[in-house]
Design goal:
alpha/beta, Rossmann fold, two-stranded antiparallel sheet, Arc Repressor Mutant, subunit A
């Protein structure tokens, strides 16, 4: 993790927590800086374990957000460009995208940053295709997240890519975080908490998660919440940044991934148990969402799932 002067403490703490050493994960995190002491936006300083040599030795380089975004030291940019040229994975949290953009890492790619800085990123870096209203953008070996807590979503997405849904969900539970939020959800939700006089729909979401194998039509969800369908859709989108049906599909795919990792059940049974009906339907959604098949996903993650669970 490359911490530039003016680093945002929360942006730095998120990957530090998620990628900290655990028995079930292979990650080793090193805090790097241009100097041994790194200043933060909160007024205190941090001690970097390594310099840019640590960046050059890393398989994944993460740049947390920093301010001002015009403070772009050339040695750091060179190290980021070199990491990209050598095929390393390069990641930014929040305004860390400005360092990646200045280093040329984002040229020709899609990226995002905090919604308050979207216009600035788009204006200053014409070679970057800036995506608005998303939590994070995955371009393979280059990944960027939107503001602050969206870094949690991106880091858990990386764990899910590397180690599977079971390990990512276990880490999420430890953080008391949502186990999966799709990157395409809106990063700026006008009403992230329940409006005064209205009850949160979290109870209905928990109720649905316990019944993913059942047909959960929109009218069923709205009836459980005690609202009309139109009101339910509006409030659900205000609270989560996505539609009820898209949220339900993501939840079902998440359940399917866990079942593929932790059981030997045939694909058609998993499709029924997660509410996607048939193996054909499950394969269709897997291909659209993950660009793979259930069988290939199981081969990639099933072997080590019991060992991770035991750890």
């Amino acid at each position: 993790m490359l911490a530039l002067d003016g680093v945002t403490p929360l942006d730095l703490a998120i990957p530090a927590q998620i990628f900290s050493a655990r028995p079930e994960t292979p990650y080793e995190m090193t805090l790097c800086g241009l100097e041994p002491t790194v200043t933060t936006t909160a007024g205190f300083s941090l001690t970097a374990e390594a310099g840019l040599a640590g960046v050059r030795a890393a398989d994944t380089v993460i740049v947390p957000g920093f301010e001002p975004v015009t403070r772009l030291p050339e040695p750091a940019l060179s190290a980021l460009a070199d990491a990209r040229d050598r095929g390393r994975r390069v990641v930014s949290i929040c305004t860390g995208a400005f360092a990646l953009a200045a280093a040329g890492v984002l040229d020709g790619l899609h990226a995002t940053t905090h919604w308050q800085h979207i216009d600035e990123l788009e204006r200053d870096y014409a070679r970057v295709s800036v995506d608005r209203d998303v939590l994070y953008v995955d371009q393979g070996d280059v990944l960027t997240s939107a503001g602050v807590c969206c870094g949690i979503d991106l880091c858990l997405h990386i764990v899910r890519r590397d180690l599977g849904a079971v390990t990512a969900n276990r880490i999420a539970r430890g953080l008391v975080a949502a186990p999966h939020r799709d990157g395409g959800q809106a990063q700026y939700v006008p009403a992230p908490v329940a409006v005064a006089g209205e009850a949160s729909l979290s109870g209905t979401r928990a109720w649905a998660l316990a019944r993913l194998d059942e047909p959960l039509a929109l009218r069923v969800l709205a009836r459980h919440a005690g609202t009309s369908q139109r009101t339910f859709i509006r409030r659900f989108t205000e609270e989560t940044g996505t539609t009820p049906l898209q949220w339900l599909l993501n939840a079902r795919l998440g359940r399917a991934r866990e079942l593929l990792e932790t059981t030997d059940h045939p694909v058609d049974r998993i499709a029924r148990d997660c509410g996607l009906g048939t193996a054909t339907n499950l394969r269709l959604h897997f291909r659209r969402a993950l660009d793979t098949t259930p069988t290939a996903y199981r081969r990639a993650f099933r072997r080590t799932a019991p060992e991770r669970a035991a750890g």
